[in-house]
Amino acid sequence: MGSKGPRKSSLTKRPYMAVQRETDLGRQPDTQVQRLTMLILTNGEKTEVDYFDALKMEPWVTVTRIRVEFRSGDPISTVEHAVRIQSESGYDKVWAVCDVDEYDVLPALQCARELGVGFALSEPCFEIWLILHKKACRRGFNNATQVDEYLRRLVPGWDKTSLDFSDFRDGVMDAVTRAKDMGEPPHAHPSTTVWRLVESLKAGNEEPDP
């Protein structure tokens, strides 16, 4: 009688422990990822919307639901509008995507920090980010028109009103690496922090490196 007790106890514990490990390690991370939602608000009417609408479908993106929306206005009003939408809709993360152009963007940068909004800024314009998909770029540009002309040399047939994401898909992570080496807008010219938004899409619940 005494020798059977330990043998019965060891048989009942092993199946229970195996099921417990599978539940803890397999199911919980999936539940966390499914809850993560993001709003990307941009004051670029066409190019930025087309780019991020395509990018969000890439298999490495871990954010479950992403809304990309155009909002006309200067950078600070874009940041403030993103906060209003978040308060109404409950997005886990909100990002504002803007060009420096002729704006004084320092108040918008400060506002984004205070309100907890991600801010992807490009100096002088978003097309700098697209150029980095093809090559490193440190040359100066006087305006967005010059950037657009340079991009057209790298992407034959480039048309900012009709972005073809297949022209850029293979260079996304190269653009991240190159952008990190360029400094920060608006002081570094040219420069972009769109890489932070891309890493946020990839990291999911984890925060991208500063």
Outline the fold blueprint:
Blueprint: H1 4-34, E1 37-42, H2 47-55, E2 65-70, H3 75-89, E3 93-99, H4 106-115, E4 118-123, H5 127-131, H6 144-154, H7 172-180, E5 191-192, H8 194-203
Helix pairs in contact: 3-4, 7-8
Walk me through what this model shows.
It is a single chain. This protein has 210 residues and is of the alpha/beta class. The protein has one domain (35-203): 3-Layer(aba) Sandwich (Rossmann fold). The protein is built from eight helices and five strands, in the order H-E-H-E-H-E-H-E-H-H-H-E-H. It has helices at 4-34, 47-55, 75-89, 106-115, 127-131, 144-154, 172-180, 194-203; strands at residues 37-42, 65-70, 93-99, 118-123, 191-192. It has a five-stranded mixed beta sheet with strand order 2-1-3-4-5, with helices on both faces. Helix 2 (47-55) links the parallel strand 1 (37-42) and strand 2. Helix 3 (75-89) runs parallel beside helix 4 and helix 7 packs across helix 8 (194-203). The longest helix is centred in the first third of the chain and has 31 residues, at 4-34. Residues 1-33 have low confidence and may be disordered.
Per CATH, the class reads Alpha Beta
Measured on Cα atoms, how large is the radius of gyration? 23 Å
The largest beta-sheet arranges its strands as 2-1-3-4-5
Q: How many DSSP helices?
A: 8
Q: Which architecture does the CATH hierarchy give at level 2?
A: 3-Layer(aba) Sandwich
CATH-defined topology: Rossmann fold
Strand content: 5-15%
Parts with pLDDT < 50 across at least 5 consecutive residues = 1-33
How would you sum up the major sheet?
5 strands, mixed
SS content category? alpha/beta
The SSE string, one letter per element, is HEHEHEHEHHHEH
Note the overall shape. globular
Taking the alpha carbons of the first and last residues, their distance comes to 65 Å
Question: Can you give the helix content as a percent range?
Answer: 40-55%
Average residue-wise pLDDT: 84
